[in-house]
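Hi everyone, sorry if this is the wrong subforum. Our group has a chain we'd like a structural model of before ordering constructs, and none of us has done structure prediction before. Sequence below.
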Amino acid sequence: MLDLPFRSAKQLAAAVKSRKIGCAELLDLYLKRVEKFNPRLNAIIATDIPGAQKRAKAADAALRKKKLWGPLHGVPMTIKESYNVAGLPTTWGTPELKNNIAASNAVAVDRFLGAGAVLFGKTNVPLYLADWQSYNAIYGTTNNPWDTALSPGGSSGGSAAALAAGMTGLEAGSDIGSSIRNPAHYCGVYGHKPTWGICTPRGHAMPGAVATSDISAIGPLARSADDLALALSVMAGPDEIDGAGWKLALPAPRQKSLSEFRVAVMLEDPNSEVDRAVQDRIQAVADFLAKKKAKVSDKARPTIDATESHRIFITILRAATSGRMSPEAFQRNIDAAGKLGADDHSYFALMTRGNVLRHRDWLKLNNTRHQMRLKWAEFFKDWDLLICPPAASAACPHDHEGERWQRSITVNGKRVPATDQMFWAGYSGMVYLPSTVAPAGFTPSGLPVGVQIIGAQYADRTCIELARLLEKEFQAFVPPKGYE
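Answer:
Right subforum, don't worry. Here is the predicted structure as tokens:
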């Protein structure tokens, strides 16, 4: 079993319940690790230590009276900065919101507290949660525990880095463009982007925003698949208003072993070349599944045009986030869009059109999106899951120059646009599908690689179940060196 700081939240809760460690003692262990390791990582950027210590002592007192608060009783956790936590700042990395102190908790925060967690801090994000890095003018740059010269991913980069370094017991992030999946992959932990709409995002928003965003979902990050399942059960379900009319009932996985799965395998796509080191680890997962007598195919695909899917994703993604633009920025995008050629399908062109998309045009794209959604549903009648890369490469060096769409990464020895790999975010995310990222091993240079496990709409528990079986039989979380 891993050393205590690196154990799963479920194991930590069991240790607390069996009185092997006290809640206040466990919190103190993590706080000492934060003091020791956070300066090199800058993953945890806001804390309420007195409040957490008070709650941990109350948790100990409750246990002495044989009162269990829930399945996470006494487990120390942190949460992504973009969630409202009463008394702590919610800035989304935006300087003008530096002094925005939340007056109340996000629904998800209250649910974790209701499950017994001891929340002691918040983790770093990029500006507007819009990067596969995690840096901003308020809190600075978060580093990857495997190599501090590298990005931990984004936008839940602080979440993944804190987990990998053993500075927290559990985390939760959000994902509109792989913001859970990418950091899990870069840092070697587990992450789950739920089916769109099953976890209420109330309280995960910038000031004044209450409408649910297109594509975006909130979900857990952890050091085990069991923790993903547990945290999802805590987070999922309607808010108080919607709960008056509907209840969530995610189907349990029908598979009991790897041999019962039907898995399609996708290593790369013309829209996004994938580094051979990443492909090799996804192939290793596929080979292992085949060895375990699962039905595996490298040819099965949903009958959609992947290029059209990618273009629609980028366009409606930028439409979904366009409300953040100032009037001046919006006008600049209108002017830029008017100068684009009709055959220009570059990332810049798709982004710019999305930023100023007319509602009539959005309706047309949305209809095509739903046609694709139906084709995915047909695909999942024959296949349980599709596995593919979460990104085009393992963790990349920090690069804060220029705009994201102007940057590049190295894939198979060549420099390619960093934004090409957004394909792996949108292929499933645009059509509301759940995706779990689980550790799949390491590159020859020793960086973690994750496998993305995509399931049918509402098949969240099936995605996580494959991750659980792979954790047990193929590859589990491995702590980075230097954080003993």
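For your construct planning: The domain at 4-258+461-473 is CATH 3.90.1300.10 (Amidase signature (AS) enzymes). The two ends are 14 Å apart (CA to CA).
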